[in-house]
TrEMBL record:
It comes from Pontibacter rugosus. The lineage of its organism: Bacteria, Pseudomonadati, Bacteroidota, Cytophagia, Cytophagales. Residues 2-30 form the DEAD-box RNA helicase Q domain. This is DEAD/DEAH box helicase. A motif (Q motif) lies at residues 2-30. Belongs to the DEAD box helicase family. Coiled coil: none annotated. Residues 33-204 form the Helicase ATP-binding domain. The chain holds residues 1 to 211 of 458 of the full protein.
Length: 211
């Protein structure tokens, strides 16, 4: 059986996983994490509950530099509930990494609080497409250092009609970036999004929702 240690994760991350009682990686984590640590683009399909947040989140945490106060990773999610939840989960994984800041921007949240958080930018920003593009048009958000980008629940992002916002966000990101897309289903739209925004992606898939 593969362990998290076999996946070459740092001691800080291994400690937080132990604190959380995660004993071994789920199939999607086991498949995605090595590719992500190598810097490849990854497209992953796995059903709800299969552990996709850690699959993309652990490599993000390994690859950002806590010494630099720049947004180095952007996680785009379809709903505010998911923004709050993903941020919370990433914070738990980052518990033993000093100086790592993770913020969440989403509709209904205070613009003032969000803009204040950009004075000392987080290394990881989680957000919904509408709110993130609002900050871009207010010229408050600088994404030029966001070299890791996650499209989480890509099927839902498209169902909710966020294509234009996603295009706007992509245009604000650096050209050289690692793209990660996770989805519960591979609709035609999701396949098109993968073809348009990922470079030579590794495909990972897990059908069992065994955690
Ligand atoms: P998905 O995004 O695929 O729907 P989540 O990432 O939200 O799934 O994970 C579902 C649940 O499983 C969460 O409660 C999470 O904390 C838990 N979980 C994820 N990975 C593991 C693991 N390796 N061991 C134990 N529990 C895990
Ligand atoms: Mg998820």
């Amino acid at each position: 059986m593969t362990t998290f240690r076999d996946l070459q994760l740092s001691n800080a991350i291994l400690q937080s996983l132990e604190d959380l009682g995660y004993t071994s990686p789920t199939p999607i984590q086991e498949q995605a994490i090595p590719h992500l640590l190598e810097g490849s683009d990854v497209a992953g399909q796995a059903e709800t509950g299969s552990g996709k947040t850690a699959a993309f989140g652990l490599p993000l945490l390994e690859r950002v530099n806590p010494e630099l106060q720049q947004i180095q990773a952007l996680v785009i999610v379809p709903t505010r509930e998911l923004a709050v939840q993903v941020r919370q989960e990433l914070k738990q994984f980052a518990k033993h990494i000093p100086n790592l800041k993770i913020s969440a921007f989403y509709g209904g949240h205070s613009y003032r609080i969000e803009e204040d958080s950009l004075v000392h930018p987080p290394q990881i920003l989680v957000g919904t497409p509408g709110r993130l593009t609002d900050h871009l048009s207010r010229r408050k958000l600088d994404l030029k250092h966001a070299k890791q980008v996650v499209l989480d629940e890509a099927d839902k992002l498209l169902e909710m009609g966020f294509e234009e916002e996603i295009d706007t966000l992509m245009a604000a990101l650096p050209r050289e970036r690692q793209m990660i897309l996770f989805s519960a289903t591979m609709s035609a739209g999701v396949k098109e999004l993968i073809a348009d925004s990922l470079k030579a992606p590794e495909f990972v898939q897990a059908t069992a929702s065994s955690v």
